[in-house]
Amino acid sequence: MAMKSKDAKKLKEFDINIYSEGFIALSKTDDIITQEYFQFKEIQKIVYYPDTGVEVVFFNDKRKVFYNDIPEESMNLFELLNSKMISWLK
In terms of residue numbers, what domain contains 58? Predict the structure, then answer.
């Protein structure tokens, strides 16, 4: 099951697939398909902004924000990422 999200300018839409050791954000722009890989071992924290989005902060201080303006969708993404991260930590 993929979660939907967008970038800040709402130009890119992401399909976020969560796995046991990380997640993949897939985006399609015109004919270009991009997959970004995120490993839980590189993530320092996950921040939830109510009804706005989820920010992923890495140990190297880089950040990635996934926006979602559909009510409760950003919370669903946060809860899924957070629960998978906790499972990975165990």
Answer: 3-89
